Amino acid sequence: MTSTTNLNRTFATLLLVVLVAASTLFSGTSAKVFTKCELAKELGKNGISRTFYGHWICLANAESGLNTTKVTKLANMSASYGIFQINSKEWCREGRKGGKCNMKCEDFINDNITDDIECVKKIQMQYGFNGWNLWQKKCKGKELPNISKCNV
After folding, report:
1. Mean of the per-residue pLDDT values of the chain
2. Which of 3, 54, 60, 105 is 20–30 Å from 72 (CA)?
3. Spatial distance between the Cα atoms of 104 and 62, rounded to a whole number of angstroms
4. Whole-prediction pTM value?
């Protein structure tokens, strides 16, 4: 009975260590799914012209469903991160700062999207909205989200 009790205590201790480690690992990333009005406010706070809110909101909705924690692994061994699905091949680096935005890709999967917006400004300046295939398919020439009732 003593060996069974010790084994149970060891298992319970190990389980506690694993749970604490897991909660520590995931506590740095908080998930947020923005509403279109919340995203419009963030865009304005970060210097995006109101004229383009509809395009940015449509883009984010098409790419991530407005979800800040979305990560999409792609066949070319790259991945796209965050609400705007910023790609690791050109714009960021996994596990370290790099790419044209000089950012860690993992920094794009939290609920603070200020750094995401700074990076997408660079993408947009280089490629326009055509830098995102889903914008071309779901937003270009289509009716854009109506934010007239948003308090922005």
Report:
1. 86
2. 54
3. 23
4. 0.79
